[in-house]
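notes to self, project folder thing:

trying the whole complex as one job this time. last attempt i did each chain seperately and stitching them together was a nightmare. two parts in total, labels are on each line so i dont mix them up again. if this works i'll redo the older ones the same way
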Amino acid sequence: MTLAKRIIPCLDCENGRVVKGVKFLDIRDAGDPVEVAKRYCDAGADEITFLDITASHEGRETTVHTVEAIASQVFIPLTVGGGIRTLEDIRAMLNAGADKVAINTAAVVNPDFVREAAQRFGSQCIVVAVDAKQVSREGEALKWEIFTHGGRNQTGIDAIEWVKRMVEYGAGEILLTSMDRDGTKIGFDLALNRAVSRAVLVPVIASGGVGNLQHLVDGVLEGEADAVLAASIFHFQEYSIQEAKQFMAAQGIEVRS
Amino acid sequence: MNKIAVIDYGMGNLHSVAKAIEHVGRESGEKLEVIVTADAKKIAAADRVIFPGVGAIRDCMAEILRLDVDQIVEDAMKAKPVLAICVGMQALMRHSEENGGVDCLGFLDGDVRYFGDALTGANGERLKVPHMGWNQVKQIKPHPLWKDVPDNSRFYFVHSYYVQTEKREMVTGISNYGTDIVATVAADNIFATQFHPEKSQTAGLTLLSNFLRWDGSA
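result (full assembly):
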């Protein structure tokens, strides 16, 4: 009996539609997040992460309905992130059926928000999403900083110090994205992931850079990730969830079959 | 009509469990009514009761006592099938180490312990806390709720504290995370799970479906 490493497909959504593209042959509407989530769940995904990149207020209402629809058909854990700024936002998402919320920019703006959220709703549902970028130059000791607004705003906050603080404040999990690797398909930033994973007691989800199945394996074995998150390799059916699990299992990683 | 009451004492996400029960009802074609409530009368009128719980035990216990949920659960346990989930299960025990020590309901003989900050696996690897994700559950005792659930199925766990009991006869399922942990217990017409059946896909939905048909006997 061993805990399985988790594979988490991520849906980026805008105004209730999956963006970044999804290509499933046997799906009616590849932009419908409910269909996509259900499809991943049936394929053996261990969790679903739904990232809302909608800007407008009306769009946020749509998101609540989308989360509701996913939660009534998908019976694996569902994390919702993007634009979570207030305790009311969290309550709305949990009431809609989310199991966890991912807090990113709002934590940087007001770190106490994470403490309040964990006290009110429990650490088990508070994921702190961290966008980190390497700031050390070649030859220097590795150092990463936290960025917000999709990697545009440098905060000057050291990534390792930040995750320790967030866990102390009650974060139950860290969703760690390397801004250097996001979208590159050259693999996770393993040194970053390992440093973060060793710095905290809570599980760390590796994100950013997956281009093939070996990258998932490396994320677990070398990056010491407890879960691996990927979007495009699954969306475009380059690989199925089952292929990913078989590949990981063949290299000795415990997965849920 | 099969009436299911999910006890709502204001702690966390009860919608997942209500939605999962409704889904199971739809799939089987059975007519169900699922109510999420703290109203003692409505719970007394239900055929089956679910006692969920997430978050910290101190806050859960405070709300349980403030809303007289202790009495509601005690009455339900005498009369009808009850399913307790996660912190709901822990709340039934005598005492929890969480939050510096909290007295629980004491309806079952067990105590709730912390995994510890230095937990290691079989190969000496460091284990994260909370125990979060899909772990196997070994069915060590037959029970109607295990019907059609393959032995060693994986269920979704998320917890930093686990139940220990000297009453081995009440343990129906175990898992392991650095140490053997009680995954499920059964006593008379109560069944309790440390994992979340409502988040455990097929295995979890099968267990919930069995609960909807369970008459409370072992």
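what i see at first glance: Residues 57-71 of chain A form the longest helix (15 residues).
need to look closer tmrw
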